[in-house]
Amino acid sequence: MASEEEAAELFSCGICEDLMVVPTTLVCCGRSFCKECVRLWIKTNAQSGGIPRCPGGCMQKVPYRLPKHSIALRVAMETLVPERLAARLKEAAEDDQELDQLGGFQAWNEIAASRDILYGSNVIVRQGSPGIVVGSCDDGVHLTVKFDEREDGSDLCVNVVPEALMLPLPGGFRLRQQVVALYELLLNSDMKVPLGSVGHVIGSLGEDRVTVLFESLSKPSTAGQSEHQQNMPEYPVSVNIREVAAKRPLVGGFSIAQRVQASMSLVVGSRVVVHAGCRGTVLAEFSDTRLTVVFETSETGAPNCCNVLPLEILPWCQTQPELQAGTTVRAVHHLMSPHAIIVPAGARGTVLGGVDSSIVFVSFDNGPAMAAAISSLEPVPGAAEPAESRCPEDTAVPDQPSPLSSVTDEDVAEEPNSPEMGIACVSMPLESSSVRAENVD
């Protein structure tokens, strides 16, 4: 068996050449070092105007955010060299004197830029960009900071005054970041923020709230909805970090609050819970592969929430007057896939809804329900009106069955009015003068 001296040699740091304290393994080369040794290596290289490279000699860039320490190495040292490890930890604790940094920021704190940072007349770091404090400069005035992104694409650190920094916003949001409302936010009896409203973050208010300035809506009032309910607040609104999300495309390219329609009948067991063509609204991204959609009808006449695959829904829009939902049409030519005729010329079908300005969703007799170009269809004169359905009055239910979906009992929400399913949440309007943070241009 190896002696304790030989075992200690196996666990020596390549920088200080002593027993490792908080052993940290770099991904680039697989070698391990003391965590504080690597940090000192990074700081020395960064403040000398360089880009830190691996101390193991592989010459790869070292990440400023180091991985968690190696539990396996720590346990091995505790087992093989317990006395030497205890002495080394005691020595390191005596040498460890944490100094307060400028403005209350300490080395390796996560921060964000509280304003645009200039070099000369050029913006090199945008307001809200996240970063990490490397340490204080020798001049006692500036902090060395590594920002995650720079406008000039450089990987070098930036020396900034503490006033240009701020603590990160809760929830991982950034200043000026575009966000979307995940719920209908009730401000008071006369004002609300509709589901899907877009705004930008202008500050924080506490540990779990951000202040958002929502953009005004341009869509007109609908029947039964008063004008003041359509007005958006012109002042910042304090929202919980779970009431908004970063604006981005969802799985399948859909978006929050987008109007959609079922592209096939959604079936649970032997029961059709949503007919093909029934309209709905995207509420959220349920998983990496599914979306939560609230459809406007169910067998009970109440909204019906389902977690669906993107292929089970299509975008919805108003159709042209001559091809309204329920209109009987026929194909003017074969509708084909690359290798086969899907719908022959002359086949009749029923328009279920619009997909975009040039495409409608049609359920063909003895055939599939599919999206078809308006130019490939023509109305059938004198056709009978479609049968009534439980779907909205401008959505037709096909007479023939549509392809069945992959929805299961677990994907159908029994209580669509729960907070997770989009019930309105109460948020707080703020006076502009009370908003902290922050140099928003």
UniProtKB/TrEMBL annotation:
Coiled coil: none annotated. The keyword Cell membrane does not apply. Residues 13-55 form the RING-type domain. Keywords: Metal-binding, Zinc, Zinc-finger. It holds the Pfam family zf-C3HC4. Residues 381-441 are annotated as: Disordered. It comes from the Eukaryota. One of its GO terms (molecular function) is zinc ion binding. Residues 430-441 have a biased composition (Polar residues). This is BFAR protein.
